[in-house]
Amino acid sequence: MSENTLYPGLNLGETHGEAHEQAESIVFGFWVFLMSDLIIFGILFASYASYLDPIGMAGGPGPKDLFDIKSVALQTGFLLFGGIAYAGVSLALKYEQGRAKLIAWLLVCAVLGAGFVVFEVKDFVTQAGKGGIPQASGWLSSYWTLVGLHGFHVCCGILWILTMIVQIATRGVDDTVKVRLSMLGVFWHFLDLIWVGIFSLVFLVPLA
Amino acid sequence: MSGGTSPIFGNLNWNVTPYTDAFQHPDSSTIIGAGAASVLVLGAIAGLALLTYMRWWGPLYRNWLTSPDAKKIGIMYIALALVMLTRGIIEGFVMRAHQATALGTLSAQESGLVAPDHFAELFSTHGTIMIFFVAMPLLIGLINFVMTQQLGARDMAFPVLNQVSLGLTAAGAALVMISLLVGQFGTGGWTMYPPYTGKIFSPGEGVDYWLWAILISGMGSTLTGMNFAVTIFKHRAPGMHLMRMPLFCWTSLCVAIMLIYAMPALTVSSAMLALDRYADFHFFTNASGGNMMNYANIFWMFGHPEVYILILPAFGVFSEISSTFSGKRLYGYTSLVIASMSIAVISFTVWLHHFFTMGQSAGVNIAFGIATMIIGIPTGVKIYDWMATMWRGRVRITAPIVYLTGFFLLFVIGGLSGIILANPSIDYQVHNSTFLVAHFHNVIIPGVLYGMLAGIHYWFPKAFGFRLSETWGRRTALLFVGGFVFTFMPLYVLGLMGMPRRSPTFQNPDFMPWMYLAAFGGVLMMCALASLVWTFWASYRNRVALAVPGGDPWNGSTLEWSTPAPVPEWTFPCIPQVSARHDWGERKRAGDPWKGPAAYTDIEMPANTVHGLLIAIAAFALGFAMVWHIWWLAIISILAIPGIVVIRGLRVIEPRIIPAAEVAEADRRFRRLVENLPPATRADEETERNRGVPDITEFAG
Ligand code: HEM
Ligand SMILES: [Cu+2]
After folding, report:
1. Do the Cβ atoms of B369 and B353 come closer than 8 Å?
2. Are residues B605 and B504 in the same domain?
3. Chain-wide mean pLDDT for chain B?
4. Same domain, yes or no: B600 and B537
5. Same domain, B360 and B317
6. I need a labelling partner for A5 at 20 to 30 A (CA). Which of A36, B28, B188, B624 fits?
C-alpha cells in the first residue's frame, strides 16, 4: 500500500507473513475505534465528577454507604490478571504453539473476566439492596452508567473470546483469525486501562 | 396515545396517524399534517410501483444495496440526502409561510397556518433533518465518492463497514420520515434540551424518535470517521505523500478525526437522555440531583465540532473548483493545509459559546469568546487563498463558480455575524433571537449547501458519464443565492428588533414587512429546489449530448480525472505511482498523460454482501420498537445485530477477482476512445464538443 511501515505489534506468527499486512490497517482501525470509545468513557468520568457532590447525591446513599473496597480490590485482581493472561495468547500465537494452547489461554482469560463480572454484579446487587439504585440520584445514575458500561464491555470481551475459540476450532488459525486475536488483545487491555481510572476516580477519590 | 400498552403492538394504535386529527378537527394545521403524511405514503407507493414496473428490484439489490464499493455508497448517501433536503426545504417554506401569517393579538394569540405544537415539530424535524440527514450524508457521500479516487486507492479500508455506516444513517433517516405518518416528532428543537424533553414535560414518542434516529445514525457516522481516517493513513497510492494529497483529502482527514472525537459526545448525551426517559435515571431532571447543564455542555462538545465537520468538506470542494475553473494552481496549498488542521483543532475549544447565558463566570465566557474569534483567522486565510487562486486566472463562470462567488459574498457576512455573537456581552442581547437563526443559516447555506451542490455538479460526470446542464446549474445557484438573501437577511433585522427564535406567534405588527420579505425568500428557495430537480432531469434527457466518456471534462489536475466517466468499479486499472502533488496535471505537462500501463494484473474486489442491509433493517426495527415500546421486537433486533456480525465473522469470505484480461480489455478500449476523441479547448467546455478529453496544451494548473 503506502510507504508506511509495517504493523508495529507483536509478530503474528514465526515470520512476518501476510497477516502482518492485514494487521497494518485493521488493527490500526481498531485502535482508532478504541480512541473514540475512550472519549465516551472520558465524558462519563467527567460527568461522574460533576455529580459527586451533595447536590448530585440529593440526600440518597453516598459512596461511604455503598462501596465495599475489598470487593473492588478483588475485582481489580481478576481483571488485571486476566489482562496478563492474554500474554499467553499472544505468545502462543507468535510461536505457533498450536490450537490447544491458544484455546487454553483464551479460556483462562475468559474465566478471570467472568470472575470480575460475578463480583461486580454481586456489588451492584448489594448496593441496590441498600437503596443505591440508579434512579435514586444523579450521582448514582452516573455511577451505574459508567461502571455498568465498563462491565458491559467486559461481558462483550468474554463473548468475543468465546467466538474466537469457536473460530479457532472450526476454521483454524488463519490470517483473519490471527488479526482478530490481536485486536481482541488490544481490547482486553483497554478494559484494564479504563478500570484503573474507575478504581481510582470512582472508588478511591470519594472514599479518601 | 390513548389506551394502555399492548404486549404485541406496544403503544401503537389506530389513532397515531395525523388522519385522526384531521378528521376530528380539520383546520389548516391538521390538514397540512395529514397532507405531509399522504405525500410520504404516495411517494413510497409510487417508488415501489416504479421499481416493480421497470423491473428494477433486481438491479437495485445487486448493483446498489449489496455493493461495498465506496463510490456507489457515496452516491447512495447523496441520493438519501437529496430526498431529505426536499423535505427540509419544504418544511422551511411552511415555517416561513406560517410566520408570515402568525401576527396575533394579545387576546387572540394563536394565529397562522399551523398550530404552535405543529410549528415546534416543524422546526425540530427541519433542524434535525438538515443537520443529520442532509448535510452529513451529503458530505460523507461526497467524500466516499471522491476521496478514494483522489488518493489512488481501490476502495475504503473497510468496505463492508462502510456499507453498515450507510445502513445506519438510512435507518435513522427512515425513523424521522416514518414519524410523519406514525405518531409525532419531538418539539424540543434539533438540540432537544432537557428538562423540557424529559419524561415529565414531553411524554409520548416524539423525543424518542429523535433519540433513536440520532443514536443510530450517530453510530454510523463514528464508524465512517474511522473508515476515512484509516483509508487516508494506510491506503494511499505509492508516492502519495500526505503533502501531495489534494486539499479535499486533507479536509476529509480533518473531518475523519473530528467525527472520531466529536460523535461520541453526542452518543453520550443522547444515551443519558434516553436513560432518563426510559429508566427514570436522573442525569438531567429537575429533581433528585439531575443537572440539565451537563446536557448542554456535552451536546455542544459534539455540536460545535459538528459545524466544522459540516463546513470543512465544502472548503475542500472550493479548493478544488477554484483552481480547476481558473486554470491555475491552488494558491497557498501549505497554508490551506495548516488552516484546515487548525480549524479542526480549535473547533474543539469553543463549544461554550452556545450557552454564554447559562451563568458561568465572566472569565470563562471571555476565554471561550476569544477562542471563538481566533477560529476566524484560519478561515480568513482560506478565503484569501481562494481569491488569490482565482486572481488573474482565466475563470470560467460555470455553476460551481457561481456557487463559489455566492459563498464568498455571503459566507463572509455570516462569519462576521458569528464574530459579533462571539462577544459574550453582545450575545446576551441577541441570544436565542432570530439574529442567531440568520447567522447560522448564513454560514450553513452558503457554506455547506453551496459547497456540496458545487461538488455534486463538479464530480457528477465522473459518476454518471455526462455533465449537468450548465444553464440550469447556474440558474439553480442564482436562485439559491437570491433565496438566501431574501429569506435570512430580514431575520437579522427581526432579531435586533427582539424577535425570539422558534416563535409560533408574535404581537408586534412592525415585524410584518420583514416577514413578508422572508416569506418571499422562502418562495425563491422552493424555486431553487425545483430548479435543482429540473437540472438533473433536463441533463438526464440530454445525456447523449452531455456525455464525456473521456473522463476529464474540466481539464483537472487530480487523479480522479485520469479515469473514464463513468468511472469503472475498480477505478484504476493499476494502482497509480504518484510522483507529484498534482500528479495528473504533471502528467499532462509531461505530455501523453493517457499512456496505458505496461501490464495488467488481476484485481481483488470485496464481494457483494447483504450485511449492511440486514444491519440497517435490524437497526430500524430496534429504533421503531423502542419508540413505541414494542419490547419483544426490541429484544429480537438488539440480539440480531451482534448475531449478524458474529455469523459473518465465522464464515470465510473470498474476495471477488476481476481477471486481468477483462481489465485490460476495458482499459485499452478507453485509451483508444480517448485517442479518437477531439480535444476540447477551454472555450468549448460548455458545448457538445467537450467529450471529456481536454486540450492538454491549455493546461495551466
Ligand atoms: C433552504 C431553505 C431553508 C429555509 C427556508 C429554512 C428555514 C428555517 C426556519 C424558518 C427555521 C426556524 C427559525 C426559528 O426558530 O425561528 C429554521 C431553523 C433551522 N434550520 Fe433552516 N432553513 C433552510 C435551510 C436550512 C439548511 C440548509 C440547514 C442546515 C444544513 C438548516 C438548519 C436549520 C437548523 C439547525 C435550525 C434550528 C432548528 C431549531 O430551532 O432547533 N436550515 N430554518
Ligand atoms: Cu459553535
Report:
1. yes
2. no
3. 94
4. no
5. yes
6. A36
C-alpha cell at B603: 484485481
Tell me which ligand sits closest to the C-alpha of residue B349.
2
Bigger pLDDT: B272 or B287? B272
Angstroms from B251 CA to nearest CA on chain A? 18
Residues 135-194 of A with CB under 8 A from B: 135-142, 144-145, 159, 163, 166-167, 170-171, 174, 176, 180
Average pLDDT over residues B32-43: 92
Residue B694: CB atoms within 10 Å: 24
Note whether A39 contacts B: Cβ–Cβ < 8 A: yes
In whole angstroms, give the CA distance from residue A44 to residue A33.
Answer: 17
Q: Which of B532, B547, B562 is the last residue of a domain?
A: B547
CA dist B110 → B3, B102, B377, B510 (Å): 30, 7, 45, 18
ipTM for the predicted complex comes to 0.92
Say if residue B329 is exposed, middle or buried (CB neighbours under 10 Å; 0-12, 13-18, 19+): middle
Q: Which of B122, B437, B442, B450 to mutate to test the pocket of ligand 1 (most atoms within 8 A of CB)?
A: B437
Q: What is the pLDDT of residues B486-502, one digit of tens each?
A: 999 999 999 999 999 99
pLDDT tens digits, B614-645: 999 999 999 999 999 999 999 999 999 999 99
Q: Is residue B557 part of a domain?
A: yes
Cis, peptide link before residue B566, omega less than 30° from 0: yes
| B518 and B556 housed in the same domain | no
For ligand 1, say whether the CB of B445 is within 6 Å of any of its atoms. yes
Query: What mean pLDDT is predicted for residues B581-601?
Result: 91
Do B328 and B229 reside in the same domain of the chain? Answer: yes
Q: What is the CATH number of the domain that holds B540?
A: 1.20.210.10
DSSP state of B10: B
Q: Which ligand is nearest to the Cα of residue B190, counting in written order?
A: 1
Is B95 touching ligand 1 by the criterion CB < 6 Å?
yes
Residues of B in contact with A176 (CB under 8 A): 652
Residue range(s) defining the domain that contains residue B302: 56-235+244-547
